[in-house]
């Protein structure tokens, strides 16, 4: 009997690939092989996906596809409704890299406040005397505003309150005051209040229709001129053009961005040359430990479905009995 086929449009940790190979024929691709990976997906029984978009049109070309296993928590790149209509199971790994992303967020806070890329370049260029003119802001005893306080936001709150003695505010309409307090923050009732009070604004919420461009021109103007903005969630939460203008005009002090509206960014994207911006390539959660955990968990979800077992983190349970087999 032939093994089912698993397609990985993006590489994952080698331990996850090894686990999949116990049950599947596995093909792994890179973003330089877009045509090849899309062609291969048409013959897939399972797809383990990171950031590649999977919409209705692609699903219609994948007549064998039974399981889309997300390597991570956010599924904004997967049309969940279309998958359900076609009997395709969708799973994810919630909180699988929460510690790593939280550490990445705090790293961006420090790198932005300490202007790490600029300072490194100054020293490497021989301008050591810049030391006499540099003055940094610090995290200690300042106010952190969390927009969203799920698993990652909760971990950021713990690091920043325990490690830096920060005052923690959170805006999360889904939680009560007591619920926010249990996660280590004081609840604010509006985004405007949080933006006005925070020295550091850090985004930790999913991308959805109502959160697209949640931070735009008006929101940036409500922030302190000395404040910084950090995003390790999803790029389109921020109106990137408005942010570039705000940085250029000195309306806010800086930004640390692990995610962008379009990835990879175009060479002429003004955010690349904006003053006091620190960028990373959507890798805040990419530690050895987190990548291994996500890969193995995503693999186990795919194996479970192919083996006829209900997976741990099933996002469309209503179709389980009518799923594609």
Description:
The protein has 325 residues and is of the alpha/beta class. The protein has two domains: 5-96 and 288-322, NAD(P)-binding Rossmann-like Domain (Rossmann fold, 3-Layer(aba) Sandwich), CATH 3.40.50.720; 98-279, NAD(P)-binding Rossmann-like Domain (Rossmann fold). The protein contains twelve helices and twelve strands. The chain has helices spanning 14-20, 34-41, 56-61, 80-85, 98-113, 116-124, 151-164, 177-182, 191-197, 217-222, 240-249, 288-306; strands at 5-8, 25-28, 46-49, 67-70, 89-91, 143-147, 167-171, 186-187, 200-203, 228-231, 254-257, 277-279. The strands form two sheets. A seven-stranded parallel sheet has the order 8-7-6-9-10-11-12, sandwiched between helices. A five-stranded parallel sheet has the order 2-1-3-4-5, sandwiched between helices. The relative contact order is 0.16.
Topology (elements, then pairings):
Blueprint: E1 5-8, H1 14-20, E2 25-28, H2 34-41, E3 46-49, H3 56-61, E4 67-70, H4 80-85, E5 89-91, H5 98-113, H6 116-124, E6 143-147, H7 151-164, E7 167-171, H8 177-182, E8 186-187, H9 191-197, E9 200-203, H10 217-222, E10 228-231, H11 240-249, E11 254-257, E12 277-279, H12 288-306
Parallel strand pairs: 1-2, 1-3, 3-4, 4-5, 6-7, 6-9, 7-8, 9-10, 10-11, 11-12
Helix pairs in contact: 1-12, 5-7
